[in-house]
Amino acid sequence: MGTKTYTPDEVAQIFQISKHTVYELIKRGELQAFRVGNKMRFEEEELERFKESTKAPAKKAMTEEPAAPVLSFSPIRLAGSHDFLVEHLVKKASAALNLQIQPTFIGSLEGLMMLYRGQSDIAAIHMLDPESKEYNLPFINRLFIYETISVLRFASREQGFIVAKGNPKKIRDFHDLAKKDIRFVNRQKGSGTRFLLDSKLSEFSIEPKNINGYDKEEWNHLATASYISRGMADVTFGIKSAASHLGLDFIPIACEHFDLVFRFSNENKEDLNRIIHYLQSAAFKNSLSDLDGYDIRDLGLAIYPTTNSKTGETK
């Protein structure tokens, strides 16, 4: 489900415009981009759509009524963990619902905090609470007291070690990460994968300082897995689908819950409900493919219909 992406510099070169103009197009909503950490990226399909939109329209008859003005609208902002299925949802829902959905892939913790601060409308998270060993809801219960939110199960994912084909270093468990000849590459602080890794290291009393490469961080699963495919590292901790994308071996460790958190306001509630209905539809489920490492049996299941503490109403 992944597609080719481009940097702002590459987009500027393709359309023979300045990089400043690229950012102006994003600001005006004419060109949709997404973030991976602090890096802006554009999907190939979006560039094709923009190219078609810039073509000169056919001349209209003089008697034709002037076109109605285009109403401006605020995009739906999605922030949180990077995932191939989230990319797919953004693309399909944007097209099916004629919505502008702006994703920012910045990690589970920061995505949830952006939602809490009102800087996004949806958070994509998979955070393990080390005390309860429960995903996502313990953090949500601590943060969202008066806000009206819903949490929907998106998918369950396999997390584990991603290694080269044939597992030449014979990596089997977390203790192997501390071996002198093992090179590791990590996910950034605040990502759900980092939460899970650190919880496991603590469980097995493994000091991060003893892991060669623990401080080397990347912002998504494909970036870390690419270190393995290029021979720049021996192992990373990530999702099975990233290993499958690059033809690498995978050693399963845990199954995690990946959820979407929706925060409702008067301005966004209509659009968020449309996205939820689409997420729960047979049309979206039937559009999913390449599901190695995912379990979507509970896709769209509401796991947190919250009660508004002020009104007593259940969302």
In brief:
The chain is α/β, with parallel strands linked by helices.
Question: Characteristics of this structure?
Answer:
2 domains; disordered C terminus; 13-stranded mixed β-sheet; D-Maltodextrin-Binding Protein, domain 2; 13 strands; alpha/beta; globular; 11 helices; 23% strand; 32% helix; 315 residues; single chain
Low-confidence stretches: 56-72, 306-315
CATH homologous superfamily label of the largest domain: Periplasmic binding protein-like II
Q: Calculate the mean pLDDT score and round it.
A: 88
Q: In CATH terms, what is the architecture of the largest domain?
A: 3-Layer(aba) Sandwich
The CATH topology of the largest domain is what? D-Maltodextrin-Binding Protein, domain 2
Give the SSE order as H and E letters.
EHHEEHEHEHEHEEHEHEHEHHEE
Number of helices: 11
**Estimated share of beta-strand residues:** 15-25%
Assembly context of the chains: single chain
The CATH C-level class name of the largest domain: Alpha Beta
Helix content: 25-40%
Structural class: alpha/beta
Largest sheet: 13 strands, mixed
Measure the end-to-end span.
Answer: 33 Å
Number of strands: 13
User: What is the overall shape?
Assistant: globular
The tally of structural domains comes to 2
